[in-house]
Amino acid sequence: ADNNNGTAPTPLTNYLDTQYFGEISIGSPAQMFNVVFDTGSANLWVPSQSCSPFSTACFTHNRYDASHSRTYVENGTGFSIRYASGNVRGFLSEDVVVVGGIPVVQVFAEATSLSAMPFIFAKFDGVLGMGYPDVAIDGITPVFDRIMSQHVLKEEVFSVYYSRDPKHSPGGELVLGGTDPNYYTGNFNYVKTKDTGKWEVIMKGVSVGTHTMFCAEGCTAVIDTGSSYITGPASSVSVLMETIGAELDESGYKVNCDTVKLLPSVTFHLGGQEYSLTHEDYILWQSHIEGDVCSVTFRGLDVPPPTGPLWILGANFIARYYTEFDRKHNRIGFATAV
Ligand SMILES: CCc1nc(N)nc(N)c1-c1ccc2c(c1)N(CCCOC)[C@H](c1ccccc1)CC2
């Protein structure tokens, strides 16, 4: 609950270092849902009781049942949202949503169809967008904006810790209203957001080892808690992968596990700082019966202009660099995660 020092923590679950989600409630009495707190989008949706039985991804998750909530208010407006990995359709409803112990009356979407791929792999039920109102579908005021207007937060910021090791507990933490010094060391370095009302910044270069290979003339980087990996323009990522000797197969880039220790750091130049990822940060080492598989947590993704071209720095970046999202000063702060 908001432990009246103006901050509200929510513990997160870490599923295989690729999915991070925490619990919220909707309705009275409370119906519990696991959601990804997603800076890459700005809407809240959960699966609906009225989703079609053929929508497997919907059926295998917790579903909101309006008929069991005495605080439900009907809306019915259509809703659809697209992510880099999957899309969702449904309709709008309104009810009391509780995040980190803070209640808000919130317009959200009841999802009636989720694209099977890849939502069948989702360990979470829904998504709580932590993006700016500018990117909210149907012009809905996002949850964090509703919480800010209650003036219960010490600071108009929220912070994200993603653990790097699934056995670590908790798997992560979202703090509304501040940061949690238990999960970072040193000071924060800040980067102003671009003036676009998105959690994106100007990146000044991407280096492999000591050599700046991409984005030397400047490019856009989205700091996206809803993405598992790091994505960049497909052409750049394929050159990057060639440089580290990774090969593309049907499930992404792989390297020979014997070479992992020798792999160079990949460094992102944001604000006045260099943010390096070592092979520990960007290789997902999975032990299988038939042998170990070493996946590279980079993906090529071409986002068409005007939004793109851009790089998306996702969970594996945030796991290394504790991130503060500052709505008061429209800036993003990074500190070394513990
Ligand atoms: C959180 C919503 C969202 N927001 C933004 N900005 N970007 C994207 N890509 C997503 C998104 C949509 C769908 C899914 C997803 C992510 N997943 C990743 C969780 C990341 O948790 C941090 C899982 C997954 C499993 C297998 C392969 C691909 C993806 C389930 C499916």
Can you give a write-up of this model?
The chain is mainly β. It has 6 helices and 25 strands. The strands form 3 sheets. Strands 12, 13, 14, 15, 18, 19, 22 and 23 form an 8-stranded mixed sheet that branches. The two termini are 24 Å apart. The mean pLDDT is 95. The structure holds the ligand CCc1nc(N)nc(N)c1-c1ccc2c(c1)N(CCCOC)[C@H](c1ccccc1)CC2. Ligand LIY binds next to β2, β3 and α2.
Q: Give the terminus-to-terminus CA distance.
A: 24 Å
* Beta-strand residue percentage: over 45%
Helical segment tally? 6
> How many beta-strand runs?
25
Distinct ligand kinds: the ligand CCc1nc(N)nc(N)c1-c1ccc2c(c1)N(CCCOC)[C@H](c1ccccc1)CC2
Q: Give the helix level as a range of percent.
A: 10-25%
Which blocks of ≥5 consecutive residues have pLDDT under 50? none
Give the radius of gyration: 20 Å
Task: Record the SSE blueprint.
Blueprint (H helix, E strand, L loop, with lengths): L7 E8 L3 E8 L4 E8 L5 E4 L8 H4 L13 E11 L2 E14 L2 E13 L1 H4 L6 E4 L13 H6 L8 E6 L9 E5 L7 E9 L7 E9 L2 E4 L4 E5 L6 E3 L1 H10 L3 E3 L2 E4 L10 E5 L2 E5 L1 H4 E6 L2 E6 L1 E3 L9 E4 L1 H6 E6 L4 E7 L1
Parallel strand pairs: 3-8, 4-7, 14-23, 15-22
Antiparallel strand pairs: 1-2, 1-10, 2-3, 2-6, 4-8, 5-6, 6-7, 9-10, 9-24, 11-25, 12-13, 12-14, 12-18, 15-23, 16-17, 17-21, 18-19, 20-21, 24-25
The structure holds ligand LIY.
The ligand CCc1nc(N)nc(N)c1-c1ccc2c(c1)N(CCCOC)[C@H](c1ccccc1)CC2 binds next to strand 2, strand 3 and helix 2.
